[in-house]
Design brief:
The complex is a heterodimer of chains A (about 500) and B (about 325).
Chain A (H helix, E strand, L loop, with lengths): L1 H20 L5 H17 L3 H20 L3 H35 L18 H16 L9 H9 L1 H4 L7 H9 L6 H34 L6 H32 L17 H7 L2 H12 L9 H19 L3 H19 L1 H11 L5 H24 L3 H9 L11 H8 L5 H26 L2 H6 L3 H18 L15
Helix pairs in contact in A: 1-2, 2-6, 3-4, 3-5, 3-6, 4-5, 6-8, 9-10, 9-19, 10-16, 12-13, 13-14, 14-16, 16-17
Chain B lengths: L1 H23 L10 H11 L5 E5 L1 H6 L2 H8 L3 E3 L7 H7 L10 E5 L14 H10 L10 H9 L1 H20 L6 H4 L40 H15 L3 E4 L4 E2 H6 L1 H14 L4 E2 L6 E2 L13 H20 L1
Parallel strand pairs in B: 1-2, 1-3, 3-4, 4-6, 5-7
Helix pairs in contact in B: 6-7, 6-8
C-alpha cells in the first residue's frame, strides 16, 4: 500500500511538471491520459464500461441540447438517466433488490445476478457525474461538449473518480479546458493539502478503524462504554477518512491549477441537522438538492408533500451510500431528524427563551452543537453496523455496565479490547490524535495555517515539513492490500 | 518550476536522512523477535550432528527440545519463531549452518501453503528486519525484496516503537509494559530456544476466536518446489530432512479438513522428501492449546514431543 502510494505520488509529481511544461491549451490532454492510466491501474476491467458510459453521456448531451421538442427532450432525458444509472443498479443494487424480495416472499428461490461480480471502482461517483452533465444540459445550465474527450475527462478526472467530490460540469469543464498558469504558492499549497489529507486518512482514520472494526465486527461481545467509544470513534473515522480523501483530491486539483469544490466545512460544529447537511459532503448534498429535492418540488409545495420530498431525498441518499437496509435506515433517520428539527424550531426557540439559554449565546451554541453531534453519532451506528440487528444492539446497550467506568481495572478492558500491545498503543493514540486534528482544523478555520507554517523561519519550517512526513510514514497504517477509502466503496 | 523541483529534492534528501537516523538509533531489545539472537547464537555454536527445528511459533511453543535432546542423544536447537516470516525466511536463517549428520525438522504452518504466505507476511518481515537489520541477509528472492520495500513503513514503525519502548522503560523504571510482555518476549525462551513462558499459565478464555477458512484461499504450489530444493540442499550437505505437519486444534481442523487433506495429497504428489508424517498425527483437542490454534500448552507440548520423538526414532532406526 505504502509503496503503491509512493509510486502514485511520484507519478503525480511528474504529471504536475509535464502539465506545466505543456502549452496551456494542451494541458488537459496530459490530465486525460493520467486519468485513463490511473483508472486502468486501479480497475482495468471496468475501463470499457466507463468509456461506454462517457460516450453515451457525450452523444446524449448533443441530442438533448439540440432538440427543440420539450416532450422529446423529457423522454430522452428519462431514457438517458435510466441508462446512466443502469450499471449502478445492476452492479450495486441487484443483489440487494433480489435479497429484499426473497426476504419478503420466502417462497421465491432466486439469487442476485451480480453476487460474484466486483463493484466497478467509483461507480456511484461517475454515474452521478454523468447525470450532472446530462441534467445540466437538460435544464439549460450547460451547453453540450463538442469534444468527446472532454466529457471523458470530466467523468474520469482522476483526483475525483474514487470518492468525489462530485464537481459540477459547469465549474470543472471550463477549468479543465484552461487551467491556471503555474503558481508556486498554489502548487505547493496543493501538495500541503495532499499531505494533510494523507495524514487524516492513514494516521487518524485508519487507526480509529482498528478499534471500530473490532467492536463492530462482533458487538454482542461488548457493552456500554466500549460501544460508546466505538460509535464515537467511527463518527470521527468516517469524517477523517472522507475529508482526507477530499483534501487529497482538492490538493491534487490545486497543484494542477484547478479549484475543486470544498466538500466539508467543520460538520461536527453544526448547530442543527439542517446545518450539518450544509457542511457534510457538500458536493453530494447539493447534488441531491439540485437533482432530486428541487425537481420533486422542494419546499414550494404543501407541508405533507414537502415532508415526502425530504424523506425521499434522504432515503435515496442513504441508498446511494450502500446496498443495505442499514444505509437506507441511516438516511431515514436523518430525514426524520431533519423534519423534526424543522417542525420544532419554534418550540425549541421558546424553550431557550424560557430557560434563559438564549441570553448565553456561547452556552446555547455549545448545547446545540452537542445535541447535533450526539444525534449524528447515533445515526452513524446504523451506517457502520453490519446489519440492523447489530445496530439496534449497539444503541440499546450504550448505557449498560456503566459501573465499570469507576473500576480502574475494568476501565482498561473497555478501551483495550484488542488485547495485544499493538492494539493498546493504537488505542492510546486515538484521543490525542482526534484532539490534535480538531485543534488544527479549528485554527485553520480562523487563520490560514498553511501560510502560518510557510512564514516560519527556514529551519523550523523545513523541520516541520520533514517531521510531518516522517510522522505520516511511521505512524500511518498501511495494511497489506490497502485500506480502502470508506467512501471509495460507494 | 525550478524552485519547486529544488525544494522537492531537498525535502526528499531530508526524509532519507531522517530514515537513516531512525534505522541507526538503538532501541528496546526485549521483544519476542529478539530471541532469535540467542537462537542463532546457539545454532552457530552447536557441534554437528545436531537437530534443528524450523518453523513458526507452532515449533517454538510446541516442542520440548530438552526431552528430544536427552532421548536422541544429540544437541537440539529450536529455531521456531513466527509463522508470519514464512517458511522460506525461517529456513534461510539456518541454511548455512547445516552440516554432515544434521537432522532438520521442518514444520511450516498451513498458511504457508496458500497465497504467497511462504514468502512471508510483509508487516512481520518488515518488523523483523527493523529489529534485526542483519536478518536482511535471509531475504532470498525478488518477491521478498518487494515485500520489504512495500512495507518500509513497518520497518520505520517498528524502529520508532522500539525506541519509544526503550525510553519509556528508562523513564518508568522498566515496569510499564511488563504485564503484556510476559508470554512473548526475548526472555520467554529457554536455552534450547523453546518458548516456555506460557507453560505455567492458564489458556486465555478467547482461544480459537478467529477460525480461519482455508477454502477461500488460493493454493500455492511454489512451496512444494521450495521444499524439494531445500531437501536436495540438506541431502547434499550430508544431513537429512524430516517434514512434520504442525500441531493444530481439532475445531479448526474440522472446518478445514478438505483443504488440509488436499495439501497432504499435493505434498505426497509433488514433494520428494523421504521422511514425513501426516497432518492427523498432530490434531489435538482444543483444550491442549494456549492462545492460538497452533500454540500448544504444556500438556499438548508433551504429547506432541512424544509423537515427534517416536517418529524420529523410527526414521533414525531405518
Amino acid at each position: 500500500m505504502l509503496f503503491n502510494a509512493l509510486v502514485i505520488l511520484a507519478v503525480f509529481l511528474l504529471l504536475v511538471f509535464i502539465c506545466y511544461l505543456l502549452p496551456q491549451e494542451f494541458r488537459w490532454v496530459s490530465v486525460l491520459i493520467a486519468s485513463v492510466i490511473f483508472y486502468i491501474f486501479l480497475a482495468e476491467q471496468w475501463i470499457i464500461l466507463l468509456l461506454a458510459i462517457c460516450m453515451m453521456a457525450y452523444l446524449g448531451g448533443i441530442v438533448i441540447d439540440t432538440s427543440h421538442d420539450k416532450m422529446k427532450k423529457r423522454i430522452l432525458m428519462l431514457f438517458l438517466s435510466i441508462m446512466a444509472i443502469s450499471a449502478l443498479v445492476y452492479y450495486k443494487y441487484s443483489d440487494f433488490i433480489v435479497d429484499s424480495v426473497v426476504y419478503l416472499l420466502p417462497g421465491w428461490q432466486i439469487t442476485g445476478p451480480s453476487r460474484m461480480l466486483l463493484l466497478p471502482l467509483g461507480i456511484s461517483f461517475f454515474s452521478f457525474r454523468v447525470l450532472s452533465y446530462l441534467f445540466d444540459i437538460y435544464y439549460g445550465r450547460l451547453r453540450h461538449e463538442t469534444n468527446p474527450l472532454m466529457v471523458i475527462l470530466y467523468v474520469m478526472f482522476f483526483p475525483e473518480i474514487i470518492a468525489g467530490p462530485i464537481d459540477r460540469p459547469g465549474t470543472l469543464l471550463p477549468q479543465l479546458k484552461k487551467p491556471a498558469e503555474f503558481d508556486y504558492e498554489k502548487v505547493t499549497r496543493g501538495l500541503k493539502l495532499i499531505a494533510w489529507g494523507v495524514f487524516l486518512k492513514v494516521v487518524v482514520a485508519d487507526r480509529l478503524g482498528v478499534y471500530v472494526d473490532t467492536a463492530f465486527s462482533s458487538p454482542e461481545n461488548f457493552k456500554g462504554l466500549t460501544l460508546v467509544f466505538a460509535s464515537l470513534f467511527f463518527t470521527f473515522q468516517i469524517y477523517y477518512d472522507f475529508a482526507g480523501y477530499s483534501l487529497m483530491a482538492i490538493g491534487a486539483g490545486k497543484a494542477l491549477g484547478l479549484n475543486l469544490m470544498t466538500n466539508f466545512n467543520m460538520p461536527y460544529y453544526s448547530k442543527s441537522i439542517i446545518e450539518f447537511w450544509r457542511r457534510w459532503h457538500i458536493s453530494l448534498s447539493t447534488w441531491f438538492r439540485d437533482y432530486v429535492y428541487i425537481p420533486l418540488g422542494g419546499n414550494r409545495v404543501s407541508q405533507p408533500r414537502h415532508a415526502f420530498n425530504i424523506m425521499a431525498t434522504f432515503l435515496l441518499s442513504g441508498l446511494w451510500h450502500g446496498a443495505n437496509w442499514t444505509f437506507v435506515l441511516w438516511g431515514g433517520i436523518h430525514g426524520v431528524y431533519y423534519l423534526f428539527g424543522s417542525l420544532t424550531e419554534q418550540i425549541r426557540s421558546r424553550a431557550a427563551i424560557a430557560t434563559g439559554l438564549d441570553r448565553h449565546e456561547r452556552l446555547h451554541s455549545f448545547v446545540k452543537i452537542c445535541v447535533t453531534f450526539i444525534l449524528v453519532s447515533v445515526a452513524w451506528v446504523f451506517f457502520r453496523a453490519n446489519n440492523i440487528k447489530d445496530a439496534i444492539y449497539i444503541v440499546t446497550h450504550f448505557f449498560t455496565g456503566l459501573s465499570e467506568l469507576f473500576d480502574p481495572g475494568k476501565f482498561e478492558s473497555i478501551l483495550f479490547i484488542g488485547g495485544d500491545i499493538n492494539f493498546i498503543v493504537n488505542t492510546s493514540l486515538l484521543v490525542p490524535l482526534i484532539v490534535f486534528v480538531e485543534l488544527v482544523m479549528r485554527f485553520y478555520e480562523k487563520k490560514d495555517l498553511i501560510k502560518k507554517v510557510s512564514d516560519l523561519p527556514y529551519i523550523l519550517r523545513w523541520s516541520f515539513y520533514s517531521g510531518f512526513i516522517i510522522f505520516i510514514l511511521v505512524i500511518g497504517r498501511y495494511s497489506q492490500g490497502g485500506q480502502a477509502f470508506i467512501y471509495g466503496r460507494f | 518550476m525550478e524552485r519547486l523541483i529544488k525544494k522537492i529534492l531537498f525535502l526528499t534528501c531530508i526524509i532519507f536522512g531522517l530514515i537513516i537516523i531512525i534505522m541507526i538509533i538503538p532501541g528496546d531489545e526485549s521483544g519476542y523477535i529478539f530471541s532469535d539472537i540467542e537462537k542463532i547464537e546457539r545454532l552457530h555454536n552447536l557441534p554437528s550432528p545436531k537437530i534443528i527445528l524450523v518453523g513458526g511459533s507452532n515449533i517454538a511453543m510446541g516442542v520440548d527440545s530438552e526431552i528430544l535432546e536427552k532421548k536422541m542423544k544429540i544437541p537440539v536447537v529450536n529455531m521456531g519463531l513466527h509463522a508470519g516470516l514464512g517458511i522460506r525466511f525461517l529456513f534461510e536463517r539456518v541454511r548455512t549452518n547445516i552440516k554432515q549428520g544434521d537432522i532438520v525438522i521442518i514444520s511450516p504452518e498451513y498458511e504457508n501453503f496458500f497465497n504467497d504466505f511462504y514468502n512471508g507476511f510483509g508487516p512481520i518481515i518488515g518488523g523483523t528486519i527493523a529489529a534485526l537489520p542483519r536478518h536482511v541477509q535471509y531475504i532470498s528472492n525478488n518477491k521478498q525484496v518487494y515485500l520489504l520495500i512495500s512495507n518500509m513503513n513497518f520497518i520505520l514503525n517498528a524502529r520508532v516503537f522500539n525506541l519509544a519502548l526503550f525510553l519509556i522503560k528508562r523513564i518508568t523504571n522498566n515496569n510499564v509494559f511488563l504485564s503484556y510482555e510476559a508470554v512473548y518476549s526475548r526472555n520467554s525462551i529457554n536455552k534450547w530456544g523453546d518458548v516456555v513462558s506460557h507453560l505455567k499459565k492458564n489458556s486465555p478464555s478467547l482461544v480459537l476466536k478467529d477460525i480461519p477458512d482455508f477454502s477461500v484461499r488460493i493454493n500455492n504450489y511454489e512451496i512444494y518446489n521450495y521444499l524439494n530444493e531445500i531437501n536436495d540442499y540438506i541431502t547434499s550437505k550430508g544431513g537429512f530432512l524430516y517434514f512434520s505437519f504442525p500441531s493444530f486444534a481439532e475445531t479448526v481442523f474440522k472446518k478445514n479438513k478438505k483443504s488440509i487433506e488436499a495439501i497432504f495429497d499435493c505434498f505426497r504428489d509433488k514433494v520428494k522428501i523421504n521422511h514425513y508424517d501426516s497432518p492427523d498425527m498432530f490434531i489435538y483437542k482444543d483444550q491442549l492449546f494456549f492462545d492460538n490454534y497452533y500454540h500448544l500448552n504444556r500438556k499438548g507440548r508433551n504429547k506432541r514431543t512424544k509423537m515427534l520423538l517416536k517418529n524420529l526414532q523410527t526414521i533414525v532406526k531405518k
